[in-house]
Amino acid sequence: MTYYQAFIDNTFVDASDGARMDVFDPATGAVWAHVPACTPNDVARAIATSARAQKDWQMLPPQTRADYIYKIADGIERERDLLEELLVMEQGKSRAEAAGEVTDTIRYMTYAAESARRIQGEILPSDRPNEQLYIYRVPYGVTLGLCAYNYPLALIGRKAGPALVAGNTMIIKPHEATPVTASVFCKICKDAGLPAGVINMVTGTGKDVGAPLVESPTVRMITLTGSIRAGQMIMEAAAKNLTALSLELGGSAPFIVLKDADIDAAAEAAVVARFANAGQVCICNEAVLVEESVADAFTAKLLEKVKSVKVGDPKTNGGMGPITTPDALARVEKIVADSVAGGAKIAAGGKRPDGAAFATGNWYEPTVLVDATAETAAVVEEIFGPVLPIVRVKDYEDALRIANARPDGLSAYLWTQNPSIYMDAIKRLETGTIFLNSGITGLVNGYHNGHKLSGLGGEDGIHGFEGYMQKRTVYMSY
């Protein structure tokens, strides 16, 4: 067993009452590490430390703050092997996917550091003589980073990098299932010489740790990656203090394939975009909407490509690993059962893999459901697991109607060679990101945000960076 501590005021600490939480290996279900089960008293210490440190931190030149971020990014690279191993152990992704996550984390951090010299204000003319109007961008103060379990390290880099460069301090609250890499990240911050209190990290439950953090009047900005329900609860809890929010929430991305699409390329992209990280990606392909005239050909090609998705121990297998938590696995199983009860048919997978290696842990086969409709449970719900329903549609308008009828709108895929259609889709698809004839991807200089119930604010790029600052207007007479 290995014990990874929380991090408060530049010191690794136990919970104030000594309590600990188990960390489970998704591949085996075995306990392999422990972390502190922090208390509200620990949260109060973290908040006080963050507030104290922020006063000095914001007074540093942005480039000085950025220099610390560069050092942290260098530290992440030095600890790459360890971080990859830990991501495999706690989250269940393959070693190749873990390597990609470490690389993405470094990119998030370095992009944020590069943004230090791009913090811009505005100078505006006044209506009165001898007066100048200025608009400054200033930090919020203490910020809170709430991270999901699907990318335990990358989400920290995505949030902490821009928050710190902008002049905020941040308290990190990792998901209960994946807290280990957060502790190692804090060690890297300490080794980089980051001033005490600029980064704090507390582990524990939503009740004992998450709630007092969200409800604190000292926390002035909250950034969450999580489910729609989690975002709604946090928004409600933060309302009393009118805390600023950036909520990157879930969504059920439609993968629209029209009759003029490159069927081979679309089928390949559909498989990768569904089964990457065992389907635990917020912008994953959640449901194929394929035009009837090419539905049979597309489905056949997709099913053939699904056979190539290897399932096995993520420590040694380069394919698909387990689902991260038992609760998530149970949810996937229920959605599949409800879908079959509603008339869908299992064309591939649909159960735990056979063999002794899969007897324990959170395993589920790559699964394809055919004869699905817009009312099928696997189409209505965000699956967040390795299950792909296929729905036949009449045409583009039918697919657009189904896609836009959803209450969420995080991402969507559209495969067509018709410029009139994809230009129309840019205007009419109610979603934050559209992948046109493209597979799943994401760049640090883009913008990752949702429409409708998929969230407020967003991450990445210049717009994500500016989300960690508020505006201050100055009228200066002279």
Which keywords apply here?
alpha/beta, single chain, seven-stranded mixed sheet, 2 domains, 25 strands, Aldehyde Dehydrogenase, Chain A, domain 1, Aldehyde Dehydrogenase, Chain A, domain 2, 478 residues
Describe this entry's structure for a reader:
Helix 4 runs parallel beside helix 5 (154-165) and helix 9 (263-275) packs across helix 10. The chain is of the alpha/beta class and 478 residues long. The chain has 2 domains: 2-249 and 454-477, Aldehyde Dehydrogenase, Chain A, domain 1 (3-Layer(aba) Sandwich); 253-436, Aldehyde Dehydrogenase, Chain A, domain 2 (3-Layer(aba) Sandwich). The strands form 7 sheets. It has a 7-stranded mixed β-sheet, sandwiched between helices. Strands 10-9-8-11-12-23 form a 6-stranded mixed β-sheet, with helices on both faces. A 3-stranded mixed β-sheet has the order 1-5-4, with no helix packed on it. It contains 15 helices and 25 strands. The protein starts with a strand and ends with a strand. Strand 4 (20-24) and strand 5 form a beta hairpin. This is Lactaldehyde dehydrogenase / glycolaldehyde dehydrogenase. Residues 13-474 form the Aldehyde dehydrogenase domain.
